[in-house]
Amino acid sequence: MKLTQILSVIKQAISGKELDFTEGSIRMAVILLAIPMMLEMAMESIFALVDLYFVGHLHNSSIAIQTVGLTESVLTIIYSLAIGMSMAATAVVARRVGEKDPVAAAKAGMQAILIAVSLNIVLSIFAFIYAADILLLMGASQETATEGVTFTRIMMGSSTVIVLLFLINGIFRGAGNAAIAMQSLI
Question: Which residues of 48-62 are buried (b: 16+ CB within 10 A; e: fewer)?
């Protein structure tokens, strides 16, 4: 492939136009769906780096960095569950879209959102209540757990927003519009 062809494919992948993946090359469909997903994951990684950058400039930065690192480690477990649910939603929605049944696709997407939000609310409440214990379990010092409990509670309590982001992006990918998923992070 020539550079101009590659750039054309990238431009098409991030354009946000609705594409019909039920016809045409499977290889091209995979590429067009993968490009926005790769860019989306890269942007999500940048968010963690930005957190650490700003936290590193705080007065007690070693405790702050430890808190961010430990909290992000626990959030990774929650986000892994969300990614799994997102992949399931993508598959079910894509199947319904492929069957040309948008009503069933919408119902499947809504059911996935309801399940994910319900599960995440339970996990968030648990994590909010036991935030200090979670930090200690992850290896934080008592001082770090005491100082970092507020940050951990905020992050755990607001994880529903990120879970919804993963899930809604999965639903958009299943509907054939992976670019919207990527653009929602900008």
Answer: eeebeeebeeeeeee
Return the pLDDT at 22: 72
Predicted confidence at residue 178, as pLDDT, reads 73
CA distance 72 to 1: 39
81 touches 105 (CB < 8 A): no
- The secondary structure of 21-70, three-state, reads CCCCCHHHHHHHHHHHHHHHHHHHHHHHHHHHHHHCCCCCHHHHHHHHHH
Domain boundaries, the chain: 3-183
Task: Enumerate residue ranges in the chain where pLDDT < 50.
Answer: none
- Give pLDDT tens digits for 112-125: 999 999 999 999 99
Question: What does the pLDDT read at residue 41?
Answer: 76
CA dist 6 → 1, 28, 84, 107 (Å): 7, 11, 30, 36
DSSP letter at 15 equals S
pTM (predicted TM-score): 0.74
184 secondary structure, DSSP code: T
| Residues 6+ positions from 137 with CB-CB distance below 8 Å | none
In angstroms, the CA 181 to CA 183 distance is: 6
Predicted confidence at residue 186, as pLDDT, reads 65
